[in-house]
Amino acid sequence: MDTAVDPEEKLFLHDPYLEWCAGEGIPIVEDFGVHLPDVECKRWDRWGANGAFVHLKGRGDWLSVIVVELEPGAKSDPQQHMFEEVVYVLSGHGSTTIETADGKKHSFEWGKGSLFALPLNARYQHFNGSGQEPARMASTNNLPMVMNVFHNEKFVFENPFRFPEREGSSDYYSGEGLFIPKRPGRHMWETNFVPDLASFELQKWNARGAGGSNMMFVLADGTMHAHMSEMPVGTYKKGHRHGADFHVMCVTGQGYSILWYNQDEEIVKVPWEHGTVFAPPDLMFHQHFNTSPFPARYLATACGGLRYPLMEEKRRIFMGMDVDINKGGAQIEYEDQDRRVHQMFLDEIKKTGAVSKMGDFIDESQYTA
Fold first, then answer.
1. Whole-number Å distance between alpha carbons of 71 and 49
2. Is 79 helix (H, G, I), strand (E, B) or coil?
3. Which CATH superfamily is domain 13-161 in?
4. Quick one: CA torsion of 49, 20, 27, 111, rounded to 10 degrees?
5. To which CATH superfamily is domain 171-184+194-360 assigned?
6. Which residues of the chain have pLDDT under 70?
7. How far apart are CA 240 and CA 333, in angstroms?
8. Helix and strand totals (H; E) in the chain
9. Residues 92, 212, 221, 82, CA torsion sign
10. CA gyration radius for the chain?
11. Per-residue pLDDT tens for 136-173?
């Protein structure tokens, strides 16, 4: 059988990142939303650990999620690569050692709920601190963008160039950081490591709805964006929209998000709990709801942040994410939302025993639930 490939066909509509993934020999999961603690992982020779790729349908061309699992007492092989990643610890505890360009090593201990970033092309290694339980991490990264631009594996994984200006001070590996005040919704915390997102202090952001709070992170002086938001008990955020690539993952509590393009069409509902991640597709409206009897937090990661937006589209989103869509922004105010939105919320919180606190923000007298 003639297996020769026509040279013209060989160069037609390639996706180097997806082709690379297919050759790594680990599971590839694709869905609208994925509960990461349940993802099947298999031995990944490159990492010296178990792994899986998670490709969300709304991820766009920029980001992906890699699930890495260390068996009890295990360690990963040393890694060094030309893509950025923001790592969230789903379960277990352990440590990571990073070797900076000057040869110094910085180690920090992490546990469930920790967040950290690995400086671009710094050499690092993960260690599971338990001899009894596995440790599982979710790396949200811009490898798809990098691999598709350079489409050269050696450039990505065997590149000696270093970026000492991105490595940060030693304090940034101990859980300390620098608060950079701007204005509500744009306050930043610069660091490389946050020990526990569940207890991290946030800043009020009333414009996004119902007494919520937020913090924007600048991690390893990179182009990866991350922010965390909290919804008080019995509340939900205002609907808004933006471009593809924002990966939204539940950190505490439980609830759901809804997504839609047009108000007269069926609403897509995504239930979430700790470790569930989804990515709203390009310019699809979405809205987040806390149905827990305690505050709920979620982490959102994207490509392009407040320090380095990268794209004009990101710059517009960060300036208009809490501005009324009728005034040129990206947000739907409560008084303009579809009537179904609040009725659905009242129906859902009945199931958990939570009580709506939205009466302080909208007129609930018209609802019968």
1. 8
2. strand
3. Jelly Rolls (2.60.120.10)
4. 40
5. Jelly Rolls (2.60.120.10)
6. 1-10, 368-369
7. 9
8. 6, 25
9. positive
10. 21
11. 999 999 999 999 999 999 999 999 999 999 988 888 89
